[in-house]
Amino acid sequence: MSNADLVQYITEQASKAGKVRAKQMFGDYALYCDDKVVGLICDDILYLKPLKQLEPFLHEDDKRLQPPYDGAKPHYVITNVDDKDYVSLLIKEVANCLPTKK
Questions:
Q1: The pTM is what?
Q2: Which of 3, 22, 67, 94 is the most exposed, fewest CB within 10 Å of its CB?
Q3: At 91, which CATH number?
Q4: Count of domains for the chain
Q5: Rounded to 5 degrees, what are φ and ψ at 50?
């Protein structure tokens, strides 16, 4: 279960990416950018979808893949959520790579 204050902090850190919001699901959160699910916040950790296009932008520490919960596909674990420009860049890049809903 994630701390609601940390979830709010992460969404604020990603504010340069576009319209970023978190929606509570099963005790943790799905993270949206421009109405696309870009990642999850589970147990106070930011996980982003494992897209190859994201790798060039990731710091070395964030290239580690780990499932956010049992049975989930591995996601990138983002350790530096205090860098607003970095978090916004990553989230915007994921959103840009995902298809637009019809």
A1: 0.94
A2: 3
A3: 3.30.1460.30
A4: 1
A5: -80, 70
> What does the pLDDT read at residue 102?
64
Range of the domain at 33: 4-97
**pLDDT value, residue 101:** 73
Within-domain flag for 39: yes
Six-digit token pair at 39? 């990642």
Question: How do beta strands 45-48 and 65-66 pair?
Answer: unpaired
The verdict on residue 102 lying in a domain is: no
- Kindly give the parts of the chain with pLDDT less than 50: none
What's the token pair of residue 59?
Answer: 């710091």
Tell me the HSE value of 85 on the side-chain side, using a 13 A CA sphere. Answer: 1
Inter-residue contact 43 to 1 (CB < 8 Å): yes
Write the single-letter amino acid at 26.
F
Signed CA dihedral, 49, 57, 35, 51: sign only? negative
In this structure, the strands spanning 20-25 and 65-66 are unpaired
What is the DSSP secondary structure assignment for residue 18, as one 8-state letter? S
